[in-house]
């Protein structure tokens, strides 16, 4: 049978990995797909980066717009990242009748709705396994393996850079900036690393996971996002003393009132498997009503792990080329006509337990004032840890763990506590999830 010809946009970390994996495993991939999958054309902004690659048999094209309409190309693989020109190229590829495989989480999270609408209209496939959690086949698992379930919630460590930073801070007491620099050198971090530490990259991925889990449109603008830049070594230490680890989690949960979409640093009990996912590794827990909790773990970034997902998508698309569009797996797991408009909760309406760290004057009645304010908002305390004041100091840190509370009530309580004369500086608050 005639080979499937790929037009590859981008020869950076993931593009390079894809070339390598497709070449090295060509025979096995052909046996799986039923026909050869061959990169026919490639284009790259940075020709310097492509030199160490074996590009034998691949026609290098200077203009990516020419590549996406080339008659020889069956599938366009977009591995450039960023919005433009990636968005325009994907739309042009669809206009030209090409199927698309992409690893671009930002593109799917922000423009997926329009991209899938066009693909649907044209009877084309757009596959994006590599956009979430690198090499972990989480899209496939959610969209197909769990298709019999109502997903109740999912929680994931879906940014390798943040997990690497938090792990190094906890295990080696390393400095934030120094670890981030290492993640950049290793090729894990985004071109703009504030996307990693600010929680934006995780929010892109959560947007995609939530859409597939609940059959809702992609709604990045509704995700409550908080990054890890304010996490201090003392909080990592206090969390540990209380039996918790701090992880940047993406959480999507369905409740009677609507869907929670949030990314934030989170204390999780150290006995949970997710608490023990370290370094650049990613993991996602999905709780289905029929199956119960399931866990997916693996490399969330890097050249070949991400290429593993790109190539899996290529095999899927190659196999489905001859199937009727109506008989293919829908882009967002649910039939396009059945995507539901379930409300996404505003940040103030989300419920979560809290870790609070305050700096208080060491004198009678201060703790009573704090607990009275919490009681006024009906916030129950789960644990209190009071550290001794350092020699010569009159202020001491107090750490409180609360029961779950509506964010709005916690905002009010914190405002009142911060206005007490005996409390100094802002209160550090980090959400706590037991992941039961
Ligand atoms: N910057 C991302 C991460 C790369 O650190 O997880 C993979 O999407």
Cα radius of gyration in angstroms:
24 Å
Extract low-pLDDT stretches: none
* CATH homologous superfamily classification of the largest domain: Dihydrodipicolinate Reductase, domain 2
The level-1 CATH class of the largest domain: Alpha Beta
Number of strands: 17
Bound molecules: L-homoserine
Q: Biggest sheet: strands, sense, closure?
A: 11 strands, mixed
- Main structural class: alpha/beta
Total domain count: 3
User: Kindly state the mean pLDDT as a whole number?
Assistant: 95
Quote the distance from N terminus to C terminus. 50 Å
Content of β-strand: 25-35%
Overall form: elongated
CATH architecture of the largest domain: 2-Layer Sandwich
Under CATH, the topology of the largest domain can be stated as Dihydrodipicolinate Reductase, domain 2
Q: DSSP helix count?
A: 15
Helix content: 25-40%
Descriptive report:
This protein has 436 residues and is α/β, with parallel strands linked by helices. It has helices at 13-24, 26-33, 47-50, 64-67, 86-95, 105-122, 138-145, 160-172, 176-185, 194-197, 200-214, 233-241, 303-320, 366-376, 407-418; strands at residues 4-9, 37-43, 59-60, 75-78, 99-102, 126-127, 151-157, 224-225, 244-254, 259-269, 281-288, 292-299, 351-361, 381-386, 395-402, 405-406, 423-432. Helix 1 packs across helix 13, helix 2 packs parallel to helix 13 and helix 8 crosses helix 9 (176-185). The chain starts with a strand and ends with a strand. Residues 134, 159-161, 188-190, 196, 201, 300-301 line the site of L-homoserine. L-homoserine is lined by residues 134, 159-161, 188-190, 196, 201, 300-301.
């Amino acid at each position: 049978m005639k080979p499937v010809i790929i037009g590859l946009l981008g020869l950076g970390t993931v593009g390079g990995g894809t070339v390598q994996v497709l070449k090295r495993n060509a025979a096995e991939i052909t046996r799986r797909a039923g026909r050869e999958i061959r990169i026919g054309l490639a284009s790259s902004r940075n020709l310097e980066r492509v030199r160490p690659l074996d590009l034998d048999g691949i026609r290098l094209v200077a203009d990516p717009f020419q590549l996406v309409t080339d008659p020889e190309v069956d599938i366009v693989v977009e591995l450039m990242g960023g919005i433009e020109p990636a968005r325009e190229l994907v739309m042009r590829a669809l206009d030209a009748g090409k199927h698309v495989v992409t690893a671009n989480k930002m593109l799917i999270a922000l423009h997926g709705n329009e991209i899938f609408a066009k693909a649907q209209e044209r009877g084309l496939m757009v596959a994006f396994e590599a956009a979430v959690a690198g090499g972990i086949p989480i899209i496939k698992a959610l969209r197909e393996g769990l298709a019999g379930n109502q997903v109740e919630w999912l929680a994931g460590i879906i940014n390798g850079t943040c997990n690497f930073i938090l792990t190094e801070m906890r295990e080696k007491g390393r400095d934030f900036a120094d670890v981030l620099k290492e993640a950049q050198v290793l090729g894990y971090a985004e071109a703009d690393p504030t996307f990693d530490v600010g929680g934006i990259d995780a929010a892109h991925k959560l947007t995609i996971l939530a859409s597939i889990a609940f059959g809702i449109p992609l709604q990045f603008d509704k995700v409550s996002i908080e990054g890890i830049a304010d996490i201090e070594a003392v909080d990592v230490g206090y969390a540990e003393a209380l039996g918790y680890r701090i992880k940047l989690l993406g959480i999507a949960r369905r409740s009677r009132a609507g869907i929670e979409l949030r990314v934030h640093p989170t204390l999780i009990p150290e006995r949970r498997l997710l608490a023990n996912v370290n370094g650049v590794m990613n993991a996602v827990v999905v709780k289905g009503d029929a199956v119960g909790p399931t866990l997916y773990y693996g490399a969330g970034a890097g050249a070949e792990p991400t290429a593993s997902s790109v190539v899996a998508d290529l095999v899927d698309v190659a196999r489905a080329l001859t199937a009727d569009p109506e008989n293919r797996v829908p882009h967002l797991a649910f039939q396009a006509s059945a995507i539901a408009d379930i409300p996404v909760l505003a940040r103030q309406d989300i419920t979560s337990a809290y870790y609070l760290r305050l700096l208080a004057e060491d004198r009678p009645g201060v703790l009573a004032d704090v607990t009275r304010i919490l009681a006024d908002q009906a916030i129950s305390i789960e644990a209190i840890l009071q550290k001794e004041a350092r020699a010569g100091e009159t202020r001491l840190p107090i750490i409180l763990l609360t029961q779950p509370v509506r964010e709005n009530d916690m905002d009010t309580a914190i405002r009142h506590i911060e206005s007490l004369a005996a409390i100094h500086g802002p209160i550090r608050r980090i959400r706590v999830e037991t992941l039961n």
